Amino acid sequence: MEANTQLMFVILGMVIGIIIGLAGYRLFSRSHRELQATRQKLIERDRQVAELRGDVGEHMVRIQHRLATIRHEAEQLEAQLSDDSFRWQIESSTPIYLDMPGVNDSPERQESNASQEEQDAFKAPRDYAVGKNGTLSEDFGLKEDSDSPQPARH
User: Fold this and answer.
1) Which of 24, 40, 62, 136 has a beta carbon 3.0–4.6 Å from 140's, enabling a disulfide?
2) What's the CA gap between 92 and 146, in Å, rounded?
3) Rounded Cα–Cα distance for residues 69 and 99 (Å)
4) Which residues contact 81 (CB under 8 A, 6 or more apart)?
């Protein structure tokens, strides 16, 4: 009977061990599959980012090329304009420039732009209100408000 009991414990231990092993394998294989799926998503997104970077780089190159073309055409137009003014004998105290800020600005135009910005910064005070009526009362700013609330003191 004792041999039977020991044999039964061995068989029962093996069955429990197999069940625990299968449960652990299923648990770890599930997390392994999730890990593999996450890695696959990461690789796919890295590929998409690399493709997007390549597209953006190509786009920037096309924009730079177009800007260079526009600058070249502007220079050609400016040369044609000066040739036509010379041909028609149009006298001008200042040379003719296209209105392209920062490109081929003459020193006179840069100074005039700076003086215009300074004038815009200092504007004269208005003698009218911004609201609907548009005018201020005669005694505006002369009344003393003694009823005005005092700030809280702690």
Assistant:
1) 136
2) 65
3) 17
4) 96, 98
CA distance 18 to 25: 10
b/e per residue 28-40 (b: at least 16 CB within 10 A): eeeeeeeeeeeee
Which long-range contacts link 146-149 to residues 24+ away (Cβ below 8 Å)? Answer: none
| 3 state DSSP class of 101 | coil
Question: Quick check: 62 pLDDT over 90?
Answer: yes
Q: So where are the chain's domains? A: 55-85
Name residue 119's amino acid. Q
- 73 residue type, one letter: E
Which residue, 32, 97, 100, is CA-closest to 71?
Answer: 100
Q: What is the pTM of this model?
A: 0.37
User: Percent of the chain at pLDDT above 70?
Assistant: 58
